[in-house]
Write a sequence for this structure.
């Protein structure tokens, strides 16, 4: 059974198809079209679900399943920078360290055992993400209440949305996971993250997404990035058409050191963004060229269609004119035939010509419009209509005419009129035994 033909795309659907391919990097146009059709040509929903599929995260349009986010972290070229806590100094420092060591060991061991046991009693509420945007907004409010409103601009959206925007805008995404219970968190936030030079660098060069690991959304990202300690920062960018972690910064890092590390990571990976920009520009140029070619083709097609339409109209006009000419010829032929039949009928109805010796006869000489002369005798008692019928029956006479006498000059009433309903006889018209009458052609009139 043959597969049904695919419906032709509209201009708007074609534009969405090319935009979707540009945003997702999918080579197959059929796959792009299938995905868009599944989402009823809603490009935002299609792009979101496509990127979620690549990352392993749920769509923002659907309830999130219980699975981990997946960003490419398997690249062995990831730059990792870990800041260890400083070792104790002096006899007092080491003494305090060894005194507190058993207490810290016991505290964290019991805490881990308690958390492990609680998993069997009550599932970790952070494993269910029900309001990811709410988690982000809640963290931002908490951060501002604790550390002030002078900080890098937080991305107020989900992690997957931040990834999408970074990919679309070809920018670095800096991810910060906030460990509320870690001993270095406060110092990092106050002295490093809120430092003016750090704020300037992040706001001008990156998108900045942050969340607490105590929030379901932050915990989900934590499961994907697998941090070892806090504070934790990850630099993510579009690399080889995938959102990839290209740098990890862990531990308490100072502001100057953070700036240096971020600059190093961005400089080392800037070529990938430049390459991607060039590829997008090339795709855009290809798209523009294809669009121009399509427009030129459509313009040429419309011109050809217009020419064909005019040729068709000209053919129809000529055909109609030929038919009109043919109809006129047929009508003229019928008219001539009818006229000839009428001439013959009137010729047959003419009374016989009187004898020349008949004293009541009138000899009339007719001068026709073509300067020819016709002579015939009529009887005084005959109506002028007989004269008209005689002239009408002649082959050389015009279709319409009137008969004029010269002395006195007058038009003979040969046909019935309101003034002469019954045309007079030759005698009543005042004709003599010999007359010359003139036939005037009225056909043009």
């Amino acid at each position: 059974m043959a597969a049904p033909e695919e419906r032709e795309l509209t201009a708007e659907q074609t534009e969405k198809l090319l935009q979707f391919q540009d945003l997702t990097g999918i080579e197959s146009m059929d796959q792009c079209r299938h995905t868009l059709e599944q989402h009823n040509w809603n490009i935002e929903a299609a792009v979101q679900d496509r990127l979620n599929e690549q990352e392993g995260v749920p769509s923002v349009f659907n309830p999130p399943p219980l699975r981990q986010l997946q960003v490419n972290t398997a690249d062995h070229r990831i730059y990792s920078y870990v800041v260890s806590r400083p070792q104790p100094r002096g006899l007092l420092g080491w003494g305090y360290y060894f005194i507190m060591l058993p207490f810290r060991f016991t505290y964290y061991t019991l805490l881990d055992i308690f958390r492990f046991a609680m998993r069997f009693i009550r599932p970790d509420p952070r494993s269910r993400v029900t309001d990811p945007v709410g988690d982000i907004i809640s963290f931002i409010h908490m951060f501002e209440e604790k550390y002030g409103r002078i900080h890098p601009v937080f991305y107020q959206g989900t992690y997957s949305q931040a990834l999408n925007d970074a990919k679309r805008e070809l920018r670095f995404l800096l991810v910060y996971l906030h460990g509320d219970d870690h001993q270095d968190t406060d110092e990092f936030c106050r002295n490093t993250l809120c430092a003016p030079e750090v704020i300037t660098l992040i706001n001008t060069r990156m998108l900045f997404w942050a969340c607490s690991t105590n929030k379901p959304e932050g915990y989900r990202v934590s499961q994907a990035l697998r941090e070892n300690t806090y504070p934790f920062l990850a630099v993510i960018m579009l690399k080889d058409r995938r959102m990839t972690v290209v740098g990890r910064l862990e531990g308490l890092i100072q502001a100057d050191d953070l700036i240096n590390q971020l600059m190093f990571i961005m400089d080392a990976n800037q070529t990938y963004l430049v390459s991607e920009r060039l590829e997008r520009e090339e795709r855009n140029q290809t798209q523009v060229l294809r669009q121009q070619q399509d427009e030129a083709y459509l313009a040429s097609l419309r011109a050809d269609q217009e020419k064909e339409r005019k040729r068709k109209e000209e053919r129809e006009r000529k055909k109609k004119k030929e038919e009109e000419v043919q109809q006129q010829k047929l009508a003229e032929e019928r008219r001539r035939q009818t006229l000839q039949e009428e001439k013959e009928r009137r010729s047959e109805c003419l009374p016989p010509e009187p004898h020349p010796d008949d004293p009541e006869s009138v000899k009339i000489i007719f001068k026709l419009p073509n300067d020819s002369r016709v002579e015939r005798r009529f009887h005084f008692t005959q109506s002028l209509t007989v004269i008209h019928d005689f002239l009408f029956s002649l082959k050389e006479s015009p279709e319409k005419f009137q008969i004029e006498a010269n002395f006195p000059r007058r038009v003979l009433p040969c046909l019935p009129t309101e003034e002469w309903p019954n045309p007079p006889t030759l005698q009543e018209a005042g004709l003599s035994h010999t007359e010359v009458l003139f036939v005037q052609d009225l056909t043009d009139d």
In short: Strands lie at 79-82, 172-178, 206-212, 232-239, 242-250, 361-367, 373-379, 401-405, 410-411, 434-441. The chain has eleven helices and ten strands. The mean pLDDT is 82. The longest helix spans residues 255-349.
